[in-house]
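One such given next:
>
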Amino acid sequence: MRSRFDEQLTGLNNNLIEMGALIEHAIGSATKALQERDVAAAKKIMADDGIIDEKEKEIESLCLKLLLHQQPVARDLRQISTALKMITDMERIGDQAADISELCVYLNGQEFIKRLEHIPQMAEATIKMVTDSIDAFVNKDLELAQSVIAYDDVVDALYVSIKQDLIGLIHEDADAGEQAFDLLQIAKYYERIGDHAENIAEWVIFSITGKHRNKQVL
């Protein structure tokens, strides 16, 4: 019975890795579409968000089956409940990648008011946070989960830099205001992705230690 249960937990981990790969791809592709002004790619990311939603439902169903049909001990119960919490944040990350893509479509045909420098850096940083948080869960790596939480400071600092740059541009040219707001909104989506990855890491720490500092992002 236990060996069967362990197989199912391994299947749960594999599904989380697959969902993680989907959202990592969505973030990276949204960034590339923005940089290359690729409207077709942006629209595909928006359409593919449904795949991420379906993966969330698949993992949720598996977790509920494990809870209903097995008798998990406390450690296993924490792992399953953590997975349920994680997929909520992961699904929202997918939504925000789609939101970035939507703004990419809206900005089509406009010349950028500044070279995109910090936004790709934010994207790279958030992908690292997402990857590391899921790896920490699968490998029960407390130190890696804690490093994800600390790394959110990098994303926040990049957001502040972007905000300051855009405010400076608006002061120089009021006509840049509308696009500056759109670019700031894109940066805000990346900042939220970082916060969701931080949430995931917090739940990973809970799954390992049984303690959670009760910080959530909507």
Summary: The chain has one domain: 2-209. The two ends are 38 Å apart (CA to CA).
